[in-house]
Design goal:
Order of helices and strands: HHEEEEEEEEEEE
Strand order of the largest sheet: 6-5-8-3-10-11
CATH topology: Jelly Rolls
Helix content: 10-25%
CATH architecture: Sandwich
Largest sheet: 6 strands, antiparallel
CATH class: Mainly Beta
Number of domains: 1
Shape: globular
Strand content: 25-35%
Number of helices: 2
């Protein structure tokens, strides 16, 4: 008797690759025609939400859970080499302090919830007291509920204690091509730049 499980798994992987490829082609068309601004990013955000709603393409078995706090899996190794499209698996309580990617991003959940807080920097960053952050907003990323942020956005994240969070992330560049991430320390109003690195298939 033939083993249909392998055929089924391959079909899911192929369908997922095709769906991701279609998303990135559509994003490229918008980017080329309009550039990235609040309006065009809003359209891209809805396309990422539509991809996340095809939950059958993202079975838990295809995305290993992390050994530590979180793990990223690349969704675009064979498609668009400019944008970064990733699937994350984060344990409850995974937290990232205030940081600036330097690239635009969209995140939407498939399971779990993640609190995103948004900030503005008060000062020019050139001396003591010039990196003080002020919170200006907050949203919860959850199934069907996205977050989108332009390249100048500063945010912090924390997954809530209601089970493993699985999310799709789309970035304006791949992790290894980030201009470096500015990480802020609220205790002393300081910041440091972390060089770009490859998080794909690695602990986060």
């Amino acid at each position: 008797m033939p083993d249909h499980s392998l055929s089924s798994a391959a079909t899911i992987a192929e369908q997922r690759a095709a769906a991701c490829r279609a998303l990135l082609v559509a994003v490229r068309a918008i980017d080329d025609a309009e550039g990235l601004n609040e309006s065009s990013l809003g359209r891209i955000k809805q396309m990422v939400v539509a991809l996340s709603q095809r939950s059958e393409l993202f079975p838990d078995a295809d995305f290993a859970e992390p050994r530590a706090a979180g793990r990223f899996h690349s969704l675009d190794e064979t498609t668009d080499r400019e944008y970064g499209l990733y699937f994350s698996v984060f344990r409850p309580g995974k937290e990232s302090g205030p940081h600036l990617h330097g690239v635009w991003c969209v995140t939407v959940g498939l399971t779990g919830q993640e609190v995103n807080r948004f900030y503005t920097r008060e000062g020019d960053g050139r001396g003591p007291g010039q990196n003080k952050l002020r919170q200006i907003g907050e949203c919860i990323v959850a199934p069907g509920k996205p977050m989108a942020m332009l390249h100048v956005g500063i945010h912090s994240t924390r997954t809530l204690d209601d089970g493993v969070s699985r999310m799709i992330h789309l970035y304006g560049q791949r992790f290894e091509n980030f201009p470096g991430i500015d990480c802020y320390n609220a205790d002393n109003d300081s910041w440091r730049k972390i060089p770009a690195k490859k998080k794909t298939l690695a602990e986060a």
